Amino acid sequence: MASGARWELLVRTSVGHKAAMALSGAVLTGWAALHMAGNLLVFGGPELINGYGAALQGGPIVWIQRAVVGLALATHVAGAWATTRQARRARPVGYRRGLTTQTATASGRSMRWGGVLLGLFLLYHVAHIYGPLHGSFVPGDVHHNVTRGLSDPLAGSLYLLATVAFGLHLHHGTWSLLRSLGHARPFARGLRRVSAAFAVALTIGYAAPCVAALMGWLG
Predict the structure, then answer these.
(1) How far apart are the C-alpha atoms of 137 and 203, rounded to whole Å?
(2) How do residues 113-137 score in pLDDT, each as one tens digit?
(3) Distance between CA 125 and CA 156 in Å, rounded?
(4) How far is CA 117 from CA 5, 52, 156, in A?
(5) Which of these, 35, 44, 56, 33, lies nearest to 143 by C-alpha position?
(6) Nearest-angstrom CA–CA distance, 161 and 16
(7) Which distant-in-sequence residues (6+ apart) come within 8 Å of 138 by Cβ?
């Protein structure tokens, strides 16, 4: 296949859009796992997580990370928007009766609206964790900002709800990743189990600081 035809397949077809979403989703999933690991340092006390935060802010790696994550997020959103538009153009009028979803999971059925909610939460998270919506933000004191920020019942509840939405999105996304790239069929059952376990692990990891802060266990 000529390079021009390959490019046409990538940018104009649902196959290309899904492949772009899969690859960008893999980058975002890796970043989410690393971010969760960093969050869990809050259980080690102020010195540990504040030192970690200072090390990140003191070097170029944080800007490289932001650039890569920003590009992956833009690619993911663009791919989701393109596939949604194609699906609507293919069938502009909905079914007169709801179809029976024999194999669809709750995570699969919630992918579109879950992605929208996560996008809105991300905007809130950035405004909250960097000060504008944080009632007692202290520059450089990561432990204080996480502990006090998540101990607020409204903020903590929003984070927990977003964590559940993220877990559902991640569950279906990790299972769909290799399938979109054409490599899932021989390992379908095993991949479903692995994707479920991975999603549960990250959901618990993200929820743990929220629950601990709301319960007053972080000081």
Answers:
(1) 25
(2) 788 899 999 999 999 988 889 989 9
(3) 11
(4) 36, 29, 16
(5) 44
(6) 32
(7) 144, 145
Chain segment 26-65, per-residue pLDDT in tens: 999 999 999 999 999 999 999 999 999 999 988 898 999 9
**pTM attached to this predicted model:** 0.83
- With helix as H, strand as E and coil as C, how does the chain read? CCHHHHHHHHHHCHHHHHHHHHHHHHHHHHHHHHHHHHHHHHHHCHHHHHHHHHHHHCCCHHHHHHHHHHHHHHHHHHHHHHHHHHHHHHCCCCCCCCCCCCCCCHHHHCHHHHHHHHHHHHHHHHHHHCCCCCCCCCCCCHHHHHHHHHHCHHHHHHHHHHHHHHHHHHHHHHHHHHHHCCCCHHHHHHHHHHHHHHHHHHHHHHHHHHHHHHCCCCC
